[in-house]
Write a structure and sequence with these properties.
single chain; about 200 residues; mainly alpha; about 60% helix
Length: about 200
């Protein structure tokens, strides 16, 4: 993105519109690509192994630096990786950092994209890493709902100033100027040709 545009762009002009479109595309793409009958089916962890004794599938844990501890939390509290565990981890690890950072800013600074883009990106990365650790596809409806909630909490008061047409007088001047210049130029060419002064 052009740096001049990104410096002038505020969260209110582009980000909510683009984020809303992105969320809608993700929701449509999620249902279309996976062909799932409901949203919960898309949030189940990937199963890649079975127990030797019973033959029942067991969920595997991701290989990130914190994955073992996150998976053990899910195992101890929720009996394994699940949507409930994913939601609890998001609200325990990701959301407090984002909320605290937003609270440190003035409410007028929330609407300036340059002030919140790193916080927004960090939250996105946090949700992605936890989802990867639990082997739950990302993005998913839970992540989408978190971002919808964030927008309704922090960015709903931002002015939604849109690009507008210039005033009618400006449009008229821009349109009429070339229209008036064409006959004047044609008249000058005809006068020069009639006078026999075509050499100059």
């Amino acid at each position: 993105m052009n740096t001049a545009l990104s410096d002038k762009m505020t969260l209110t002009r582009f980000s909510p519109v683009l984020s809303g479109c992105f969320i809608i595309l993700l929701m449509c793409g999620h249902r279309t690509v996976l062909c799932l009958p409901n949203d919960d089916a898309g949030l189940q962890p990937n199963v890649t192994a079975t127990t030797a004794a019973t033959g029942e599938p067991i969920a595997t844990c991701g290989s990130g630096p914190y994955c073992e501890s996150l998976c053990s939390i899910c195992e101890d509290i929720f009996s394994g990786p699940s949507v409930e565990c994913l939601s609890a981890l998001f609200h325990h690890f990701c959301m407090p950092k984002f909320n605290n950072a937003m609270d440190l800013l003035n409410t007028t600074d929330w609407c300036v994209w340059g002030n919140v883009n790193s916080l927004y990106s960090n939250l996105s990365i946090c949700t992605e890493e936890i989802s990867d650790c639990l082997q739950i596809p990302w993005p998913n409806p839970l992540v989408e709902q978190i971002f919808v909630d964030i927008h309704s909490t922090y960015f709903k008061e931002c002015p939604t100033e849109e690009f507008s047409d210039p005033p009618p007088a400006t449009v008229f001047a821009l349109v009429i100027t070339p229209i008036c210049l064409i006959p004047i130029m044609v008249s000058l060419v005809v006068l020069k040709t009639k006078n026999g002064d075509g050499s100059s």
